[in-house]
Amino acid sequence: MSNNDNKIDFKGRVAIVTGAGGGLGRQHALALAARGAKVLVNDLGGTVSGTGGGSPTAAQAVVDEIKAAGGEAIANGASVTDFVAVQAMVKQAVDAWGRVDILVNNAGILRDKSFSKMELADFQLVVDVHLMGSVNCTKAVWALMNEQKYGRIVMTTSSSGLYGNFGQSNYGAAKLALVGLMQTLSIEGAKNDIRVNCLAPTAATRMTEDLFPKEMLEAFKPEAVVPAMLVLASEQAPNRTILCAGAGTFEAAHITLTQGAYIGIGAHAPEALAARLAEVSDRANEQVPQSGTAQGSNEVAKGMAASGRG
Fold this sequence. Notes:
Elements: E1 14-17, H1 23-34, E2 38-42, H2 57-68, E3 72-76, H3 83-97, E4 102-105, H4 120-148, E5 151-156, H5 159-163, H6 169-189, E6 194-201, H7 214-217, H8 226-233, E7 242-246, E8 249-253, H9 269-275, H10 277-281, H11 293-306
Parallel strand pairs: 1-2, 1-4, 2-3, 4-5, 5-6, 6-7
Antiparallel strand pairs: 7-8
Helix pairs in contact: 1-2, 3-4, 4-6
């Protein structure tokens, strides 16, 4: 943040945005550049399903837009599934500008089909691009961000992962896996001011244009998601937040833990659990754990209280 009006700006910051040749990634790159960031625009140049590509033409077009507006940018055509190419991409940014402050993991593809009709190869490829692509890019900047004691990483998750969506078992599995990745990296990176968050966008892009009625496409334009990305990439970003955005509305998603109930482990436990499942699932006074140890702590506390030792 700068100035007294708390305007978010990125002067002196270097950003990498993957999948930035069109749609949401393009808007991310343009917005970061408009607020002062130097931007490496990455795009494989392939189709929505992940075929073709290998040319930085789409990325270069966005670079040209940024430069025409007075910004600074370079193009890169690496596939996020190729770790060697991703390492070279990060080196390209460092060679040009000396650092990398922001990584927006946006690259993705779709191979939608019901699970019964889906080929395992289509499942694997979607996981490779969304999950492992984000892992590759994050790994490639992680040591650098730790060394400079600053980093902002945005994972692109989805309501399909958080809540499910017919025909998107591969996409949903990969997208929720990114939340799990974020949960741990946000803990590990905190000591060196590396803040890791997730963005769950609802936007009309090449990947989603067939899902929305035409009259809704304008409301769900990609530009409406960008403010959430800018907040998550900013100096004053939160850490470990799942921010949802679409059509000018912003929400936060949480993975919570209920208070639960002590039932014991005797022979009666399955039937007792079934009888009290509504109580176990009751969301009154649920918590958002700060780490995975919260579950075990709650279970030990309940057990000790039940045995009279709490």
